[in-house]
Amino acid sequence: MTFDVKNKTVLVTGANRGIGKAILEEALQRGAAKVYAAVRNIESAAPLVAEHGDKVVPIRIDLDDPSSITAAAENATDVDAVVNNAGVLKTSSAVAADAIESLQFEMNANVYGLIRVAQAFAPVLKANGGGAIVQLNSVASVKTFANFATYCASKAASYSITQGLRETLRDQGTQVVSVHPGPIDTDMGAAAGFDESASPSSVATEIFNALAEGRFHAWPDPVAQQIGGAYQSFAENVVESDMEESPA
């Protein structure tokens, strides 16, 4: 299953900056007819509209507000692909005083937000021929870093949900891609304390390459590629295999 973005309509959450902005720009560069810039604050997308004109349509989505996701799906009925890029991060270790609160905050956006987006937009994609869902999951979904262990836990959970979506949505012709960036030069990357980071454009390029090539996993930057290389056998033989046995 592959997806060509040319002449298609794409929705990108968190599109006003960082990786989301790079994804929006890459989609337009590859010939997308329209990109919905899904942001919490509509005004934050004004510079994108000023630069790209009516090919960019701001729409409100706040992963903490389920009603905003439902409303967006009801309005953006022409969407062919959804890139769920928005997410949150707290720098909390597993024994930090605020660990539970941090994990609850991260789970609500990074996991429940993904589920809400999938629930709202899967029927839209089905009605439009299948399309694609892309989830930003991070290398932190397969490797825990102690200083932000709660974030890693939330991303491991979102990766698990993404695997489930791949199988669940296959029958309706929806391609699912799980993206696992390493350190990226964004505000979130700075908050995590990354010193050397790759460009957000590397993530955007890899996303659309994975869609075009029919790949489930996308490892965009040097750190991600190192981890992805070590993980490849498990990914191919377990995660991406059609295992029919029920879990113990």
What can be said about the biggest beta sheet?
7 strands, parallel
Order of strands in the sheet with most strands: 3-2-1-4-5-6-7
Q: What's the oligomerization state? A: single chain
Low-pLDDT residue intervals, each spanning 5 or more residues: none
Count of domains: 1
CATH-derived architecture:
3-Layer(aba) Sandwich
Q: Give the helices and strands as they follow along the chain.
A: EHEHEHEHEHEHHEH
Strand residue percentage? 5-15%
Please tell me the overall pLDDT: 93
Classified in CATH, the superfamily is NAD(P)-binding Rossmann-like Domain
Rough outline:
globular
Describe the model.
By secondary structure, this protein is α/β, with parallel strands linked by helices. The protein has one domain (9-51, 65-239): 3-Layer(aba) Sandwich (Rossmann fold). It has 8 helices and 7 strands; from the N terminus they run E-H-E-H-E-H-E-H-E-H-E-H-H-E-H. The chain has helices at residues 18-29, 46-52, 66-75, 99-127, 149-168, 187-191, 200-213, 222-239; strands at 9-13, 34-39, 56-60, 81-84, 132-136, 175-179, 217-218. It has a 7-stranded parallel sheet, sandwiched between helices. Helix 1 crosses helix 7 and helix 4 (99-127) packs parallel to helix 5 (149-168). It starts with 8 loop residues before the first strand and ends in a 9-residue tail after the last helix. The model has no long low-confidence stretch (mean pLDDT 93). InterPro entries: KR_dom (IPR057326), NAD(P)-bd_dom_sf (IPR036291), Sc_DH/Rdtase_CS (IPR020904), SDR_fam (IPR002347). Belongs to the short-chain dehydrogenases/reductases (SDR) family. Its EC number is 1.-.-.-. This is Putative oxidoreductase. Residues 8-187 form the Ketoreductase domain.
